[in-house]
Structure formats: structure tokens, C-alpha cells
Specification:
The complex is a heterodimer of chains A (380) and B (608). Chain A has 13 helices and eight strands. The termini of chain A are far apart. Chain A is an alpha+beta fold. The longest helix of chain A is centred in the N-terminal third of the chain and has 29 residues, at 102-130. By secondary structure, chain B is of the alpha/beta class. In chain B, the strands form seven sheets. Chain B has a five-stranded parallel β-sheet with strand order 8-7-6-9-22, with helices on both faces. In chain B, strands 11-18-12-13-14 form a five-stranded parallel β-sheet. Chain B has a three-stranded antiparallel β-sheet with strand order 2-3-5. In chain B, α4 packs across α6 and α6 packs across α10. The chains are: A alpha+beta (380), B alpha/beta (608).
Chain lengths: 380, 608
């Protein structure tokens, strides 16, 4: 029974409601969430809700010896761990004045491109799954596994290779590795038409992805977008070319761009980069046998290694974009401060929040996967 | 749009039919069956327990604190050899298989394998915590994966080279041979240390070597001196002439050169001013006077170390020294080119600056009796060392041209004149034999312009007693060293002059029971021309100081004074320490000095 003084409150009819998208959701990469305000299935606003993967990497690094961090940094981006190791090593090499032997530099380029291939396969597989296409997802993951087999052979570890240390790499390339790598590249190249057939030229994908999460080049620059996402707005910017590191200046490769700035363009850029990475790897395989010499320069005893005081900022082109390490040393045996510029920390926060507005609920997953945002890079 | 993607805005209606082509293809997903891992795979650990010395370096580098050192009773434990009975156990709940433990292992005992499957059943919840042995986690003998390679070795196996004066510049003078480390070299050398502490365990006086090496690496020489003075007031001396058991035990020495711990100590001591060292040494001296008096006989390392400890506890300490300078054998037995006197003086000055009084030229037994000391002091320490040379007792060894190495060395130090032989033979193969041969060779060079010096040692070069560098440097200075030669007799001509020594080839030195009983090959006889023969086959104590009555009362063991584990004799007021108890070794003497000081401190405390 209602109280006597009851009066129904007169409210306008509304379809607005809030939805927690993630942290445990198949449409989210890793453990990450969005608090989405919807009107029906139209997104009115989205708030990035990170922190679920926060393990305090940057703070943790201050408490560990310089060398111990090489086992920690790959964890900041699981699908693409090699750039983390290389970039961290480059920073210490710059501080410590270490000369990395040329052979080690070529081996690093090889791993970086292997890692890029693996990450891009993973990314397109993931995107396919968000549009309901599961076969490309299985293909992406299964073909990535073949690259992981080669990582296992080269580095002893499949996902976290922990193979780069300041001064170079930890092991010589095994006998016959380059031949096996070469036949893997043949296989991957033969798969590209299959990927195109089933996914990249598939109308289901094209129609779903076109104009979804589109940004202009101007917006992209304003929001700090880098990597394939930036190149998908038509800007030809790649750290490998514009600020070359290691031996990238000795390698021929193109920088694919797309004009659209939408989810479709971003995927097409990645698809073109698959081909470029294969091209780079073929050049490495050709050059590496003729580059003799050590794979590492001597480093001090890791238990008693004071890296000279100073600061360094090193950047590499990871599969997600511009990855950088800002490392400060006060001359001690541990870093004073390490800051990781994870490209995904821009892509998954301000970019996604902006791009999601106005789109439909089911497109959030697509946008996130097309940005290839990696939540642990946000929660460093 | 990119040219390499056959992208079209509109799809063909027949396009789905393309998928039919995949029907006949093998699926891309992997078959679900076990697969052998790659050759350098980082799977579960194995550890070769024979090679592992329990140094715990793996534990230190482990970035996840996954390694715990576990004591295994029954495994060998020997501080002198640098072996502990601890082995690493791995918590696979923490391990990330980075393999840093493998790359840094000083011995190369630990490696990762190609084994990667482990299933924890309900009743085996702790089965992720394992103690790897050579058989691996499940005893299934998987092949090694990530193993130690030269590329990946994180241990620096090479010592910093120690600069030395060239033979031509040193063979006619007594200037110090070794240059010492520069600060840069010292820091690099100190950085090689993995802080395992094997050196600390093996050192007779348990010097805090890991701590002072760390301090040197940090560029803090004063802190290094502070750490050094925790356990050794004779550090200028030990930084130069220590027998350095630490370096024998050093875990880096398992596969490469050990850390040059002795030279690092020398560096730290030389890097800090004598004045500052005296201040640092006085930091833990008590600020009261106990009223107790202790007499110490002999101003050598053992006696002065005991004096150092006792004076810091507020006792009044008087040291009686028969000779006119302190240092004992470190001054009168070790030539100046190895142990410069000013550095020895610096060590002693630290001790005297704390209030220890040294009464020189006072021979106990002649100038003052033991009975007087017993009456006037609360405790007495005898640390008179081994000043008398032993004789070979071969025919002719009682000739005046046959000398004992220790007495000749003493003469050289004291600057007493004697006729330097044109040609001489030294009998013996230890460091003292090298000392006298090299000292005389210098004098020969000074007086005659040439060296005619032979050393005849019983041992062969594979079992030589003297340090290898002594042998090398002696040869550089023109000394002939003969191994496996035993003395037969001295040759004395009709005028009664010594003209040479006859030696025989050695067949064996010890008998079946391991007793010293050399056997010679009579057919292998050599005559060495010499106008002086020097016996350097060991030393013994001059016990005349004690007086007959006390000698009678004390307990003896084969000519050495018998003491308990604290250096206490059978007399309640009398302690003994140093070479006379344990045989010749500086750092052992220092350790012994600390031991008796602690025992006396306890004794004096009880009486209060």
C-alpha cells in the first residue's frame, strides 16, 4: 500500500544508462574497462577505467639491479615484448657508453621484426574475433605460434624472450636458425592471400570497420597517436625511418600509410606492415652470416654495476607505436627512475574515449582492437 | 589504399565460394601432443652438486627472490677450500626462467633444461618448491637447455694486472716491487666480487672482505679501512704479504682468476692517510680505564694484535720486545722489497697511538724475568714466534760458512755487515728460501755486479712450496732454482773453507704413512759451488725466555707450547699466541692475537 502523501515523480522517458564494459570482457584487450554511458546502444560518453593490470613496473624497476629489469620489462607488453627489452637496453647503453657490436644490432632488428609480425598477427586475429569472424582469429594465433617457435629456438623462451641485455644479446644464433626462419617467412608470405581473402577484403569486415573510430591526422597528432594508428591517418612517420636506431638505416623497407583514419585503415596498415617486416627479415637473413664478431660487449659484474649518472631517452617503433624509455641514473646500482612511454597509454585512454563517442556499443571492441591498445602499457 | 591488398569496395557474389578451397587443407592449429623443447630452452633447473659450492650468487641475482639456499647435511663443508653444504632450491611459484642464475653462476653448476611440464596434484601443493639436483625435477634426465656459454657468462674471469717494477730496475735494491692498483683498477677489480663471503669464512681472522671490497667499489676507501680494522690491525702488512687463503676460497677463482683481495686491501690502506687510519681505528675504543695490566712478550703481529684489542678495552698494555724495532718476523723475516718498513711502521703506529707501550731491547728471561711479569701483571701473553732456524744436520752443516736463513735475513734488516758470498746455495723451497735468495742476490748485484745464487728444493715444481710468482720473479732476477734436490753434504776444503754443497736427486719425500722421510737417488749427485750455504728448512722457538722452572711447569707438545682453543696455557695467568703455537703465518698470528685477547678480556672480567 502506498503512503497517503505519495506522489509519482514525473520524469521524462529515458533510455540512458551506464554500462561497465570490462574488465572481464571478450571485447577488451587484457584487463581493462570502460565506463560507458549509453542511450540505447549509442555511446554518449566513455571513461577509460584502467588499473586492473597495475603491477607498478616503473616503481618496481627502481628497486632492482639494472640487469634484473631485463626480466621485468617484457611483461609491460605481452604480445610485443622485444621492443621493451631493446629499448630498455638502449637506454642503459646510452647512459653507460656501451658500444653494441654490429652483429648484436642485426640480431636485435631480427627479433624486433619477428615480434612485430607476431603482434600484428595477434592484433588482426583479435579484431576479426570482435566482428564475429573466428577463423582469422585462429589463423592469427596459430601462425603467431610458428614465430614463437623460432623465438623459442633463438632465445630459449617463447613469449618473454629475455634475450637482450645491455651491451647486446645473450646467445649466439643457433645453427640452421636462419634457414628455418627463411622457410617460415615463405610460409607466412604464402598465407597473406588467405588472410586477405578471409578477412582484409571480406565485405563483412570492410562494412563493419569503415568509418568506425575515425580520426583526422590533426586529431591524431593532438592526442599523441603514434605507430600504425598514426600512419592510418596518412602521415608517414615511423621511428625506424625518422630517427633510425640499430641498423635500420641500412635496410630497405616502405612505410605503408592509409588515408582513412578509421578502423579499416588501421588494419590495412598493419596488414601491409606484415609484408614489410617479412621484407626486412629477409634482408637480415641475407646480411647476418657475413657480419662476424661478438654478440655482446663486456659489461661489469651485474651485482656491482653502477651505471654512470645521467638521463637518457630512447625510442623504438613497436607494433603499437612509439615506445620510449626515459631512464635516470644517479650513478647507483639501480635505476633512480624509469618512465615507460607506452604508446597504448595514449591509444587506450584519450583516443578511445574520444573515438567511442557517437558510435554504437558493439563498435567499442572493434575500435579498441583496431587501435591495438595494450592495457599493461597503460598500467605501467 | 595499399597496392598489395586486392581491396575492393564491393564483394563479388561468388566470393564465399572461395572458402570451399580450405576444405581439403590441414588445419593451422597445432596438434595436441607433447613436443620436445628447443635446444636452449629455459625449462626447469638442474644443478650439478659436485660442481656447486653453495656460494649463493644465483640467489643474489635472482630478480624474483625465487631461490633459497638450503643446507644439505652430508655434503662437504670446508671454508678453507671455499665449499659450503648449501644448495639452491627454486620456488617455481616465483621463478620467471630468465636464466640469470645460469649466466652468473661462478662455477657453472646450474643450468636450465628442456623439461617444462609439471602437474601439481592436490596432495603435492608444495611441489613447486624444488631442490634441483643433476637428475632434474622429476628424475627424468631431460637434456640441458639454457646452459653456461662463453657469450653469456656474466662473471668477469680476469684479474686486473698488477704492475711491477722491471727486473733490471729492481735486482740491486730493496725498493717495493709491486706498484699497487690505481683507483680505477681497484674499482674494476672490486666490481668483480659477487659478495659470496667465501673469503670471510676461509680467512683465519675472518676479515670482512666482502664489506671492504664493496666499499672500495663504492669509492669509499675510508669505509673500507673501517671494515678492515674490524678484524685486522696489520692490514698494511696483510695487504702485501698475506698468504691469502681468501683468494684460494674465492668462488670467482673456480673458473678464472680470484678477486685480488690482498691487493684491494693494500689499495684501501694506501688510499687513506695514516692520520685518518689512526682516527678510524680509535673509533670503538672505550672511554674508561679498566685498571688491569697486561704484559705481552714479542711485538710481532700476534702480540700487537692482542695489545690492540686489549688497549681498546681500556686495559694498560705493555709489550716487551727483545729487538730494537717492532714487527717481529714481518720486519726481520720478510725482505723490504716485499714489505716496506714504513708501511709496517704505519701499522704499528696505529696500535701505539691507542696507548700501547712497547719496551724495546728488553729480552724477557734476561732483562726481566717471567716471574716478575707474573707478579706485576694481571695477564701475560707470550708471542715470541719462531726466530731460530732449523738445521739440516748434514755433514759440514756446523761450518761457520753455513748460515740459517732467518738469522741472515735479520742481519740484513738490521743493517749489520757481513761478507756477502760470491756464490751461494740455499737449501729449501719455501717462501723464506726465496726471500733469502733474492735478498742475497740483490746484495751480490750491488757488490759484485752479478748474481750467482742457486736454490735447491726438495719438492718438484708441481708441488712447490713457494708462491709461483716468487719463483718467476726469482728467476727474472737471475736466481737458479733446482727442484727435487736433497742436500747430502757441505764440501770443506783442506784449508777449512766451505767450497760447495753436494745434492742428490729426490725419489720421494714422504713415506707410506705420510711422514717426512726423504729418499734420494745416490746415482744422481750434483756438486754446487758455493762459499756460503744457507739452510732454510723451517724455524723453531727459542724457549730460553721461560726459565727452567716455568718450562718445567708448562705443558709442551713436540717442542711447541700446549694451549687450549683460546690460547691459554696450563698456567692461569699465561697465554700464548702466534707462530710459536700454530706455525708461521701472519694472518693466522693476527687471528690468534684476537683469540687470546678475547680470552684475557673474559678472564679479567671474571676477576672483577
Amino acid at each position: 500500500m502506498r503512503p497517503e502523501n505519495y506522489q509519482a515523480k514525473n520524469q521524462p522517458p529515458s533510455h540512458e544508462f551506464e554500462l561497465n564494459f570490462g574488465p572481464n570482457h571478450p571485447g577488451i584487450e587484457g584487463n581493462y574497462a570502460f565506463r560507458v554511458k549509453l542511450n540505447g546502444d549509442e555511446v554518449l560518453s566513455a571513461r577509460a577505467d584502467g588499473g586492473y593490470l597495475h603491477r607498478g613496473f616503473e616503481k618496481l624497476m627502481e628497486q632492482r639491479l639494472w640487469i634484473q629489469n631485463i626480466a621485468l620489462v617484457p611483461r609491460i607488453c605481452v604480445p610485443d615484448p622485444v621492443p621493451m627489452e631493446v629499448c630498455y637496453s638502449l637506454a642503459i647503453e646510452e647512459l653507460g657508453g656501451l658500444e653494441v657490436p654490429e652483429r648484436a644490432q642485426w640480431i636485435r632488428v631480427m627479433q624486433l621484426e619477428m615480434s612485430r609480425l607476431a603482434a600484428h598477427l595477434f592484433a588482426f586475429g583479435g579484431h576479426a574475433a570482435t566482428t564475429g569472424m573466428y577463423t582469422p582469429m585462429f589463423w592469427g594465433v596459430a601462425d603467431r605460434d610458428l614465430i614463437l617457435d623460432r623465438f623459442e629456438e633463438l632465445t630459449g623462451g617463447r613469449v618473454y624472450s629475455i634475450y637482450n641485455i645491455p651491451g647486446g644479446v645473450r646467445r649466439e644464433v643457433p645453427d640452421g636458425f636462419l634457414e628455418r626462419m627463411s622457410s617460415l617467412l615463405d610460409y607466412l608470405e604464402s598465407r597473406l592471400p588467405d588472410y586477405d581473402n578471409l578477412f582484409f577484403t571480406n565485405q563483412v569486415f570492410i562494412k563493419r570497420a569503415r568509418d568506425v573510430g575515425a580520426m583526422t591526422q590533426e586529431q591524431a597528432l593532438k592526442w599523441g597517436v603514434t605507430g600504425p594508428n598514426l600512419r592510418a591517418t596518412g602521415l608517414k612517420f615511423d621511428v625506424r625511418r625518422d630517427d633510425p636506431y640499430l641498423v635500420y638505416d641500412q635496410i630497405d623497407f616502405d612505410i605503408p600509410t592509409e588515408p582513412g583514419g578509421d578502423a579499416l585503415s588501421r588494419n590495412l596498415v598493419r596488414r601491409s606492415e606484415l609484408k614489410q617486416s617479412i621484407r626486412i627479415l629477409r634482408q637480415v637473413i641475407e646480411r647476418l652470416p657475413s657480419i662476424k664478431g661478438p654478440i655482446r660487449c663486456p659489461i661489469p659484474n651485474p651485482l656491482a654495476w653502477n651505471v654512470p649518472a645521467g638521463e637518457s631517452y630512447t625510442r623504438v617503433e613497436s607494433s603499437k607505436g612509439e615506445l620510449a624509455y626515459y631512464v635516470v641514473s644517479t650513478g647507483g646500482d639501480k635505476p633512480y627512475r624509469v618512465h615507460v612511454r607506452g604508446p597504448s597509454s595514449m591509444h587506450a585512454v584519450q583516443v578511445l574515449e574520444n573515438l567511442a563517442v557517437g558510435c554504437r556499443l558493439e563498435d567499442i571492441a572493434q575500435i579498441m582492437f583496431s587501435l591495438d591498445a595494450c592495457p599493461p602499457e597503460v598500467d605501467r | 589504399m595499399s597496392s598489395d591488398i586486392p581491396y575492393k569496395d564491393k564483394g563479388s557474389i561468388l566470393r564465399p565460394l572461395k572458402s570451399l578451397g580450405f576444405f581439403a587443407r590441414k588445419p593451422v592449429t597445432e596438434p595436441f601432443e607433447p613436443r620436445p623443447a628447443a635446444d636452449s630452452y629455459r625449462g626447469f633447473h638442474v644443478n650439478d652438486w659436485e660442481k656447486c659450492i653453495g656460494c649463493s650468487t644465483c640467489q643474489k641475482v635472482c630478480d624474483n627472490a625465487a631461490i633459497t639456499m638450503v643446507q644439505i647435511p652430508g655434503l662437504p663443508e670446508d671454508p678453507v677450500l671455499g665449499v659450503r653444504n648449501e644448495r639452491p632450491a627454486i620456488d617455481y611459484g616465483r621463478c620467471c626462467w630468465c636464466g640469470l642464475c645460469v649466466d652468473i653462476c661462478p662455477t657453472g653448476s646450474i643450468s636450465l633444461t628442456t623439461e617444462y611440464v609439471h602437474i601439481c596434484r592436490e596432495d603435492e601443493l608444495d611441489s613447486y618448491f624444488i631442490l634441483p639436483d643433476p637428475n632434474g625435477m622429476h628424475g627424468e634426465h631431460f637434456s640441458k637447455g639454457w646452459d653456461k656459454t662463453e657469450d653469456a657468462d656474466l662473471v668477469d674471469l680476469q684479474q686486473q694486472p698488477m704492475g711491477e717494477v722491471e727486473p733490471q730496475q729492481r735486482d740491486d735494491n730493496f725498493n717495493e716491487i709491486v706498484n699497487g692498483f690505481t683507483s680505477q683498477q681497484a674499482i674494476i677489480e672490486a666490481s668483480r666480487c659477487v659478495q659470496c663471503g667465501m673469503c670471510h669464512d676461509s680467512c683465519p681472522t675472518h676479515m670482512h672482505a666482502p664489506e671492504y671490497i664493496r666499499a672500495i667499489w663504492e669509492g669509499n676507501a675510508e669505509e673500507a679501512v673501517r671494515q678492515i680494522y674490524r678484524s685486522n690491525p696489520f692490514s698494511h702488512v696483510c695487504g702485501r704479504v698475506c698468504t691469502r687463503r681468501c683468494e684460494t676460497a674465492c668462488s670467482i677463482g673456480r673458473r678464472g682468476d680470484p678477486v685480488a683481495i690482498r691487493w684491494l686491501k693494500r689499495y684501501a690502506m694506501d688510499a687513506v692517510s695514516d692520520e685518518r687510519i689512526r682516527q678510524i681505528a680509535a673509533e670503538d675504543k672505550v672511554d674508561y680505564i679498566s685498571g688491569k695490566k697486561v704484559a705481552i712478550i714479542g711485538a710481532g703481529p700476534a702480540g700487537l694484535t692482542a695489545a690492540f684489542d686489549l688497549v681498546k678495552k681500556g686495559h694498560e698494555v705493555t709489550v716487551f720486545e727483545a729487538l730494537d724495532k717492532p714487527g717481529g718476523m714481518t720486519r726481520y723475516g720478510i725482505p723490504e722489497y716485499r714489505m716496506p718498513y714504513d708501511r709496517l711502521d704505519a701499522d704499528v703506529e696505529v696500535i701505539t697511538s691507542l696507548g700501547v707501550r712497547i719496551q724495546y731491547n728488553t729480552h724477557v728471561g734476561q732483562d726481566i724475568s717471567m716471574r716478575d711479569l707474573e707478579r706485576d701483571y694481571d695477564a701475560v701473553v707470550v708471542a715470541i714466534g719462531l726466530q731460530q732456524g732449523r738445521s739440516t744436520r748434514i755433514p759440514g752443516s756446523d761450518h761457520k760458512g753455513v748460515k740459517k736463513a732467518v738469522s741472515l735475513l735479520r742481519k740484513i734488516t738490521q743493517g749489520k755487515s757481513f761478507k756477502v758470498p760470491r756464490t751461494a746455495v740455499v737449501i729449501g723451497g719455501g717462501n723464506v728460501a726465496m726471500d733469502i735468495a733474492r735478498s742475497l742476490a740483490r746484495l751480490q748485484k750491488q757488490q759484485y755486479g752479478e748474481v750467482r745464487m742457486t736454490v735447491a728444493a726438495l719438492e718438484d715444481f708441481d708441488h712447490f712450496l713457494a708462491d709461483p710468482e716468487e719463483v718467476t720473479e726469482s728467476r727474472e732476477e737471475g736466481i737458479v732454482i733446482l727442484d727435487s734436490r736433497g742436500p747430502k753434504q757441505c764440501i770443506i776444503d783442506e784449508q777449512g773453507n766451505l767450497t760447495g754443497l753436494v745434492t742428490l736427486g729426490v725419489v720421494s719425500i714422504f713415506d707410506a704413512d705420510g711422514r717426512f722421510a726423504p729418499r734420494y737417488d745416490d746415482s744422481d749427485e750434483q756438486t754446487h759451488q758455493a762459499d756460503m750455504v744457507i739452510e732454510s728448512i723451517g724455524q723453531m722457538t727459542d724457549v730460553s725466555s721461560f726459565g727452567e722452572e716455568l718450562t718445567e711447569r708448562l705443558e709442551w707438545n713436540r717442542g711447541r707450547l700446549k694451549v687450549d682453543e683460546n690460547g691459554k696455557t696450563s698456567e692461569a695467568w699465561l697465554w700464548s699466541a702466534g707462530d710459536m703455537v700454530f706455525g708461521p703465518d701472519v694472518v693466522h698470528a693476527v687471528a690468534d692475537g684476537h683469540r687470546v685477547a678475547a680470552s684475557i678480556e673474559e678472564h679479567l672480567g671474571v676477576k672483577q
